[in-house]
Design brief:
Layout: H1 20-30, H2 45-60, H3 71-90
Length: about 100
């Protein structure tokens, strides 16, 4: 997302929302930084950067490991990200492009 453009919202993203910004939004939902109905449509790059900083500070509390999340957050993480995978796959995302350079 360029600084002059506005974010299209997680529901309108390419790859079913499986992008760095999409992950940031989902993690913000996990940590309660955003309501799960907030898609961030119309946000500018500075707003996304502020959210990313907040999300990173939350992850730092748990060593950036899902396995270290308290039960409630772990379960919310699993639900939110599992739902995202299903929706993204239905939209045609496979994840293959993310590991192409590792093969």
């Amino acid at each position: 997302m360029s600084k002059s453009r506005l974010y299209v919202g997680i529901d309108n993203e390419i790859n079913g929302g499986m992008t760095a910004i999409g992950k940031t939004i989902r993690d913000a939902w996990v940590f309660g930084l955003l309501d799960e109905s907030e898609t961030c449509v119309g946000w500018n790059a500075a707003m996304v950067d502020v959210l990313l900083d907040k999300v990173n500070r939350e992850w730092d509390k748990y060593g950036c490991l899902v396995s270290q999340l308290p039960t409630e957050l772990f379960e919310r993480h699993q639900r939110i990200h599992d739902d995202a995978f299903v929706k993204a796959q239905a939209a045609g995302w496979s994840g293959a492009f993310e590991v192409e350079d590792e093969q």
